[in-house]
Amino acid sequence: MLSEKSIKKKFILQLILASVVLIAIFSVVLYSYIKISILDDITNSLKNEANSILKEDKLKSPFSKKPTSISVSNAISHVSDKVEVVIRVDKEPKESFEEYEKDGKKFLSIYTPYDKSRSSFLIVTKDITGTYSLFSKILNSIILVNLIGGIIILAYAFFLSETLLYPVKNINRKLARMNENFLEHIDADELPTEFVSLGESINKLIDRIQNFVKYQKELFIGAAHELKTPLAVMKTKNEVTLIKQRDSQKYIETIKTNNKAIDGMNSMISSILEIGRQEGAQFEAPIELNVIEFLEEKNKDYNLLSANKNISIKMDLEPERYCILTQPTLLTHILQNFMQNAIKFSPKGSTILIKSRLNGDDFKLEIYDEGEGLDETKDLFAPFKRYSDKSGAGLGLFLARGAADAIGAKLSLKNRTDGISGAIAIIELNAKNFCPTDEEPSKKSIFGR
Predict the structure, then answer these.
(1) Which domain holds residue 412?
(2) What is the number of domains present in the chain?
(3) Structure pTM?
């Protein structure tokens, strides 16, 4: 039994309804055409016979006021049952037809003016009972054919619905069997053209899930390792300190060392909590946002951070306006991380350049620093990976990658090739998130809230 929400049920009902209406209209038109065609043939035959009788003047004998009847053989007719001349003062002196029923039989008569001055008509009558019997058989045959056709259409509707819904069912079965340990891509090449985009979207979602699961595992393993190591060092130092009596300065040094390790662990725990807050921000409703205006506003905050190291920030932004639908909190996470790294790794007195351009329909943002550069062979976005002597938990770029995945952006890092030492942080915003209007952003979510 198909449910009320079943696509298959709705498709079958609509196909059957459309087919029934089409067959009914076709049947009515066909039956009417057959009936009219046969009756036209009969009326034409009666006309021809009446004209033949008048031309051969078979009935021209001394006229009597009484109606005259002659046999079929005398009327040289092969289609009529009766030929006679009658006076009908109630009829107009023009050719006409009359259909009537008598003794359970149907007749069709043609009235042809015989002598207009005396209101006499030549009547040729045809028994059409057999013709109506034929009409009845034709109608019954059409109804029978329609019933058989209805059964065939019903079977075809089920077959067609199964054929059309097979790709969806196939995708549904694959998704139902999936779990985080066994994720397979859907072969989009085997799907019908109409379902290719759906298959590609699901594959992108699977990639995101795989990356999320991978990084989450690395995060938990890394967090356990990063917290276990300082705890083990603290415990060992405490045990060594307690082996024998020492002066107060040794105890103070041990406590300071432990406090420093605790501060490091607190910093790491704060970074891990930041991941949780970021995941919550992914459920923030997207809004229309002018990226250029957003960058100019954020630059005020970045100038405050860079002022402590006497680092200047220059902006080269094009186009003048670019509006997207996005979650501003997540975009802020990405920009803040890249800018903090640029400030951290750039020497005093250097310059950071924020540059934006359109790359086709996509928006490309680049942040240039003047640091020592980076090792492009390393996975810089992996959690707890630190490739410099700078302090930090090694989770900043990991958080940035997670935020980028959530808003559909692409992140990359590479070394500068313009003759200046340093790195380039790149953010690419997909044109699919471009605002559908050229008006100023309304700062409302796309859901109208």
Answers:
(1) 287-433
(2) 3
(3) 0.49
